[in-house]
Design brief:
With 352 residues, the chain is mostly helical. Helix content is 57%, strand content 3%. The chain is elongated, with a radius of gyration of 31 Å.
């Protein structure tokens, strides 16, 4: 043991001396049987290079783990969700945990967490009537549950680590063509003007659908040229500033005096009407965000910068999920998409 001062060392010496004297007095009161048991235990432990104190510590730790193992899946799920909330995770992440762990609890809620085996968990995940990607998401959420249990020594091993991830199809992300997005925005201008901002922000600023739904007009600063995605709105629970490009500024300028939420009431109905008006037979999943990532990367050729604008900490996600290869001339056309009256004022990005 080491101490900063001599006074601290002397105090600890006195404490240890007092403790030994008290234990010596207690030892005098031990029966012959107890003394014999003590000597036998000491000799047995010595064969393994251990002493009485180490054996007691091991036993107490074991008993604590046995006690904790009685924690049910439902009890632990509730504790995990509350811990994540206190740690400041985003509302979306908490909601996703609550949804997926809730389904897991409906089948295993009354069972002790230590009783969930690899085979049992693997069988449950394989029988989920969902897509491979959805089952991957369930596996991740349940992994959070068992990782929490392992850290608190309720279990020795996380069973999720021994379960293979569902194989995902390596399909490229779907994006809007320049003609499709132009038709979409023009149709919105004609039949549902209130939907124009949400489409333009998704396509030219790359915000997630959930971030756009929570976005307020007070966070769209046309004067300084940026959109603020607050920590409460972001999936990662980290605030970020997204620059407003010239063409999205042109689309948003007529709405500069708007208040409240950017997404209007009845947004889904409006978007369906816009899609039909534009003559589009498809709406790619996350198509606006995918389009932003693909055309933006081709335009500026700066993966770390695009990743930061998307809200990622590294470009890896950009290359693996959000990027589709597009031609430089298509990227140039994409960043010139603007209202007819303002198209002459929009400057395209250089691809070099």
């Amino acid at each position: 043991m080491f101490f900063k001062t001599r006074a601290e060392a002397d105090a600890e010496r006195l404490r240890q001396q007092t403790l030994l004297e008290r234990h010596s007095r207690d030892a005098i009161g031990l029966s012959q049987r107890e003394m014999s048991d003590f000597v036998t235990a000491r000799e047995t432990l010595a064969k393994y290079g251990k002493n009485i104190s180490e054996a007691v510590a091991f036993f107490v730790d074991h008993q604590e783990r046995v006690r904790r193992c009685n924690t049910t899946v439902a009890e632990l799920a509730k504790e995990v969700i509350e811990a994540k909330r206190r740690d400041g995770h985003s509302p979306r992440h908490i909601s996703d945990l609550r949804l997926r762990l809730g389904k897991f609890c409906r089948d295993f809620g009354d069972e002790p967490i230590a009783g969930i085996t690899v085979d049992k968990l693997d069988g449950w995940l394989r029988t989920l009537p969902y897509s491979p990607q959805s089952r991957v998401n369930y596996r991740a959420c349940i992994g959070v549950l068992f990782s929490y249990a392992k850290k608190r020594r309720m279990i020795d091993h996380n069973p999720v680590e021994n379960i293979d991830k569902p194989k995902l199809p390596n399909n490229p992300p779907e994006i809007f063509t320049v003609n499709e997005l132009t038709a979409l925005l023009n149709a919105a201008s004609n039949v549902a003007p209130a939907a124009v901002p949400m489409i333009a922000i998704g396509a030219f600023a790359g915000l997630r659908d959930a971030e756009i739904k929570r976005l307020n007009w007070s966070e769209v600063d046309l004067v300084r040229g940026h959109i603020e995605v607050t920590a409460a709105e972001a999936k990662s629970a980290r605030r970020r500033i997204v620059p407003i490009q010239p063409n999205v500024a042109a689309w948003l300028r007529p709405y500069a005096s708007m208040k409240g939420h950017v997404v209007p009431l009845g947004a889904r109905r409006k978007l369906e009407r816009v899609r039909k008006e534009a003559g589009l037979t498809r709406w790619p999943i996350n198509g606006l965000r995918h389009s932003f990532a693909s055309y933006r990367l081709t335009a500026i050729n700066d993966a770390p910068r695009v990743a930061a604008e998307l809200g990622h900490t590294s470009p890896q996600m950009l290359f693996s999920t959000y990027r589709e290869l597009v031609l430089p001339e298509e990227a140039e056309r994409y960043w010139k998409i603007a209202p007819v009256a303002e198209s002459a004022n929009v400057v395209a990005f250089s691809s070099v």
